[in-house]
Amino acid sequence: MPNQRFADGEVVMGRWPGSVLYYEVQVTSYDDVSHLYTVKYKDGTELALKESDIRSQSSFKHRKSQSSSSSPSRRNTSRSRSRSPGRPAKGRRRSSSQSREHKDDKKKTIQETDLALLVLGFFKPSENNTRRYNGEPDSTERNDTSCIVSEQKLKPDLEMERVLEQYSLRPRKEEKKKEEIYSEKKIFEIIKTIEKASSKTKELEFGGRIGTFMLIFFLPATVFYLLMMCKQDDPSLMNFPPPLPALESLWEARVFGVFLLWFFLQALFYLLPIGKVVEGLPLSNGRKLQYRINGFYAFILTAAAIGTLLYFQFELHYLYDHFMQFAVSAAVFSMGLSIYLYIRSLKAPEEELAPGGNSGYFVYDFFTGHELNPRIGNFDLKYFCELRPGLIGWVVINLAMLLAEMKIHNQSMPSLSMILVNSFQLLYVVDALWNEEAILTTMDITHDGFGFMLAFGDLVWVPFVYSLQAFYLVGHPTAISWPVAAAITILNCIGYYIFRSANSQKNNFRRNPADPKLAYLKFIPTATGKGLLVTGWWGFVRHPNYLGDIIMALAWSLPCGFNHILPYFYVIYFICLLVHREARDEHHCKQKYGLAWERYCQRVPYRIFPYIY
């Protein structure tokens, strides 16, 4: 069994995983079983390193002294030549001046090289941490003040140039200028190469290239299957596959025109100079984008426009009669938008590409999104689609289903089930729009690019799948009693309370941890300067907002009864989605917070469901 080479508490140089950069660290412990050293960096980060990744400080100092000094014989020879009695005094002064000038140039070049290599510390790995408004960890940046590179590739070329320079008859100034240009080009090439390599997406999700290729076809097929099943008299799984409609019945130019009118109307509301302007989280280049928070105002204007249409006897149940055609129109538009987004991303600078969509594989980057924040002027395409056309459209579709139910069944009032579904989901949408600013910290904005996944999800999946319960109730009315309706309402209120209070608790702590109102909250400090809450909702489970989401999703489906499983598709999908996102959160948080996250997991063992998962 190998012995421990570095003692506990010893200050050494530790290599950062995945790079050639060495940083000053302190050995905290040694594991005899795994033969790994636990070291602590200056910023508080703790990592486990192999012995081969650790070197003593003396080895670096020795190497540095060798590279920056010349041999004694050369120094003696130079000294004897400069003091030769055969040379005139003026020549001695010129030689001494040129020697000092050459030393200054050499020192300047080395300093510039060291400075450029210090810049490479910016590419030290750090993770940004998803969806559902406030439920994700915020992103942070790490600033390190010192780093040492084990090998400087510039050194051999520069030393050779200096040796050749002594025997060259060209003027000194020309040699000096050439050396400076050569050094700057080399430094720029190294920085550009490392920056490009570090920004590539290495971990592929959703099954990689094959999985994302299949999802491009599977997601639209799922939407159309669900809508066709809801149209059946008996939407049982035993009736698979449902009868396919004629292809010509799936498309109508007028329907597509109505969809375009809706999309650009929401774009117009987005551009109105109302609402406050806030800054998003810092990008990889340190820049912060500005966003106008006016989603709730857009919702009010939309409600006024819909009310005006109803006042003038516009039949809103037109949406129900052409629901499949609207879904096809939205899918076609989202595909066209995705193609446009990918083509324009090919000309985007490297720093503007998405961390999760820069793999170099066409299908994967097309699906996940290649560019992080595509904008036309100040119009942010991803941020606009995230909440406006699809989420507000969800409420309009629910209202259209309510009116269609009344017309088809000759009712003067909508059913109690339809009222519950509309009310619960309206509360959810209004909450999202009222807390619009919180979406700027989600992974959809900070990490995911804008490609087919988000374009299809925002414009097709959200409005046409999330409204599945209301669409189902039109063709399959379900009567429920007032006591049952009261119980379902209480369940939805519990889910909403958990969802909103957990998010508010975290957001308030994030804004001002020293707030006296939050003095009762306990947390684990991390190397990033943030704290991990271990009391309140976040001490109950690791993702209490996801728990509230799932409870609300169940309350939305219960008014549809238990005759068929189809209305509960949303619950099953939501559980799978949140479990996937929770696993992704766990991965990012473990990389971001290190040992602090492991202590948090020991303190809070349950992820979403207490005592279960």
From TrEMBL:
Pfam families in UniProt: ERG4_ERG24 (PF01222), LBR_tudor (PF09465)
Tudor domain: residues covered: 4-62
Region listing for Disordered, in residue ranges: 53-109
Membrane topology: Multi-pass membrane protein
SMART domains: TUDOR
Keywords linked to the UniProt accession: Cholesterol biosynthesis, Cholesterol metabolism, Cytoplasm, DNA-binding, Endoplasmic reticulum, Lipid biosynthesis, Lipid metabolism, Membrane, Nucleus, Oxidoreductase, Phosphoprotein, Receptor, Steroid biosynthesis, Steroid metabolism, Sterol biosynthesis, Sterol metabolism, Transmembrane, Transmembrane helix
Domain of life: Eukaryota
Family the UniProt entry places it in: Belongs to the ERG4/ERG24 family.
Name of this protein: Delta(14)-sterol reductase LBR
Origin species: Ciconia maguari
